[in-house]
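Bumping my old thread because nobody answered last time. Still need a sequence for this structure:
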C-alpha cells in the first residue's frame, strides 16, 4: 500500500485494485491507533474513525487535491503505482 502523502502525523495511502469492498474512489488514512477509509469525491467516512481535528485536516486536503487524488485512483485501479501528493501545509 503506497503512502501518497503524510502531514501532521497523518499517513494517507491508496491500495492498488482496492475497489471491491467500498466500490468508490477512496483513500486509507492512519493517525496513531486510528484508521479510516474516506471517499475521495466528498470526504465521507466509509469505514473506521479519526479524531475530529485530524478528520477536518484530511477533508480539507481532499478538497484541495481532488483532481490529483482521482488521477491516482485511476492509476491504482489499473494496477499502477499512484504518485505522491503534496502534504497539507
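Sorry it took so long. Here it is:
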Amino acid at each position: 500500500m503506497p503512502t501518497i502523502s503524510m502531514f501532521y502525523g497523518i499517513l494517507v495511502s491508496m491500495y492498488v485494485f482496492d475497489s471491491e469492498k467500498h466500490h468508490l474512489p477512496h483513500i486509507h488514512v492512519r493517525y496513531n491507533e486510528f484508521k479510516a477509509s474516506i471517499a475521495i469525491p466528498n470526504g465521507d467516512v466509509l469505514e473506521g474513525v479519526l479524531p475530529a481535528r485530524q478528520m477536518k485536516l484530511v477533508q480539507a486536503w481532499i478538497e484541495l487535491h481532488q483532481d490529483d487524488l482521482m488521477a491516482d485512483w485511476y492509476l491504482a485501479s489499473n494496477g499502477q503505482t499512484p504518485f505522491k501528493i503534496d502534504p497539507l501545509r
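The chain is about 30% helix and 30% strand. Let me know if any region looks off to you.
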